[in-house]
Amino acid sequence: MDAHDPHAAAGHGDHTVAATSADPVHQAAPPSLVVSLVLTLLVAFGPLSTDLYLPALPTISTIFQVDSGSAQLTLSIFLLGFATGMLAYGPLSDRFGRRPLILGGIVVFVVASVGCALADSLDSLIVWRFFQAIGACCGPVLGRATVRDICAPEDAARVMAYMGLAMGVAPAAGPVLGGMLTEAFGWRSTFVVLTVFGLAVGAAVVVLLGETNRYKNPEATRLDRLIANYWVLLRHRVFVGYALVQAAGYSGIFAYISASSFVLIDGVGLSPLAFGLCFGAVVLGFMLGTFLSGRTVKRVGLDRLMRIGTSLSLAMAVILSVLAFTLPPSVPAVVGPMAGFMVGIGLTLPNAMAGALGPFPYMAGSASALMGFGQMGLAALIGFLVGQATDGTAHALGVALVAMSAIAAAAHGLVVSRARPAAGH
């Protein structure tokens, strides 16, 4: 039995086989502009929930009289909750549909955002952030599964790239808005805005987004079926390779999210608003990368774009690391290379997601959930380590970026490229 062959995982007629087969019947057109906007807002739950309050992290550290590593736990615990929730949302949506799970997750998000705004201690804030993440993760995992529901793989790559471009507005504008809110109204106001955002997106889903899961599987949440499906995914080397690229690339982004406010506000001396503007400049690199990816993926191919993207990210990570260990922290030494790093990430992540989900139309939710779990789990670990090691310099950030970029490049070059012929792609 070939471990790379999805059809070798079970006998004919089994749902697991169907889950890993291509979908020759349904080749739908890309979603409308309105539906694409709703899906983009759903995916934006993640970056907004982390980036909007970034300028407030040093303030939170001061108000609750804790060190930067302790304050950073509000980020790492968020990713832990995000990863945990994804494992549940995927299979549940494969059984019951995307729409009811999305709406349930938004309700949890709104309630937890109110709890964050009212938190009277760091411990309380950490607990509410965990539940906020449980709600927020419905957006990315089910929004991407919805794209796979209604798009062929190449169209999915293009739609996800454009969603990434539009979604770049969230992390670009988030820290700027967060800096303004923190300076004008205090750190709690950022969570009030997240509450309002959740309510608005929930209303949009109710009015504009119908059910897209046409292959509801009543056995998707059976424990033995769940284990079997995840086992098929983990034995599919193409899926594993793309998932590792995605996890390492996102962990590089989160290393910057974890360290940037302490490096640029505490180390360089920027105000929260100035930090937000610098963060937005870095996100413009990601938006440029996703724009180029969306424009060129059909002509160039997703794997070639990923080779370019991973190589560029690794080069920029090395430059940032060298500058971090040879010069004092400064805006040009951090923001410049980081923007270039994000261009490479923008070329990489949408294509990695589309490549991983493409072979699994019948369990896109489970595949998206497992991929998201790996992505968020690794990012939580890297974010925690970088947060503990950050000392006002960019040393820890540089080391993390080089390590994650090298893993992403190796995963694509050594795992995906070698496995694709064996998997029949």
Protein architecture, described:
There is one protein chain. Helix content is 80%, strand content 0%. The chain has 18 helices and no strands. Helix 5 (68-96) packs parallel to helix 7 (122-136) and helix 8 packs antiparallel against helix 17 (364-389).
Supply the number of structural domains. 1
* Uncertain residue ranges: 1-27, 421-425
Average pLDDT confidence is 81
Radius of gyration of CA atoms, rounded to a whole number: 20 Å
Can I get a quick summary?
The protein has 425 residues and is mostly helical.
Helix and strand arrangement:
Blueprint lengths: L14 H5 L13 H11 L1 H7 L5 H7 L4 H29 L1 H21 L3 H15 L1 H13 L2 H15 L1 H17 L2 H21 L14 H13 L1 H31 L4 H29 L1 H25 L4 H27 L6 H26 L5 H29 L2
Any descriptors?
mainly alpha, 425 residues, disordered N terminus, disordered C terminus
